[in-house]
Structures are given as structure tokens and as C-alpha cells.
Design goal:
Layout lengths: L4 H10 L2 H14 L2 H22 L6 H23 L3
Helix pairs in contact: 3-4
Length: about 90
Amino acid sequence: MTPTPQELVDAFKRNGEFDKLRYRLNHQFEGSKTKDKTSAQTKSLAKDRIETLTKNPGMSDQQIKEAIMADIERSVAWILKILELD
């Protein structure tokens, strides 16, 4: 019987292959030029978002913090969905 795609994924997870792949990809990323570019883009996006939020006179510091935390949570959820780790 041919395994389903989900069964293959589950077996891959049980055997630790996702962890090995994640480690290998992270190691490659850490040593790449892409890391610097991605880091710079991320910092620029965060800076722009913070500037946008702080220009809103109706938002308190707490509301700004909550908005930023919500952005981070959405980003993490999106990444996990892409990686099917949630």
C-alpha cells in the first residue's frame, strides 16, 4: 500500500528528519550572504512599522507594544503554516 503524503510527513517527523533538515538549512543560512540581506530588510520593515505606529497620536505606548506583538505573532504563525509545524 502506498503511503499518503501525510503519512510520509509524519514518518519524516518521527525519524527526526525535519529537525536535521531545519538544522542544515539554518546552518547554511547563517553562513550565507542572504542572512545579512534578510536581516537588513527585517530591521527596515520593523523600523517602518514602529515609525508608522508612533505617528498615530491616538495610540498609547501600550497599544503600540500590543500592535507590534500582534505583528510578530502573525509573522510566526505565517512561517509555521508555511513549514507545516503548527
